[in-house]
């Protein structure tokens, strides 16, 4: 006896459910993966450049404030 079922006018066979995975060209998949990795590295590089600039800017601000503080202290002592 056939285990097929008729559901909504379509014959359904028992077994695996869902769609079969589409056959993706392996070379295309690898190229997409490489491109994604390149883009990720580029974003990471930009993020680190931004953070380094931010740190440098804050360090300059700290130096300027220390100099200002030293001037104020010296002015009050005299």
UniProtKB/TrEMBL annotation:
Keywords assigned: Activator, DNA-binding, Nucleus, Transcription, Transcription regulation
InterPro entries in the cross-refs: bZIP (IPR004827), bZIP_sf (IPR046347), CREBL2/REPTOR-BP (IPR039250)
SUPFAM superfamilies, sorted: Leucine zipper domain
Localization of this protein: Nucleus
UniProt biased composition (Basic residues): 10-21
Principal location: nucleus
GO cellular component assignments: nucleus
Pfam families: bZIP_2
GO molecular function, one term: DNA binding
Stretch list, region Disordered: 1-23
TM helices/strands, residue ranges: none
Superkingdom of the source species: Eukaryota
Residue stretches making up the BZIP domain: 26-74
Similarity-based family: Belongs to the bZIP family. ATF subfamily.
Protein name: cAMP-responsive element-binding protein-like 2
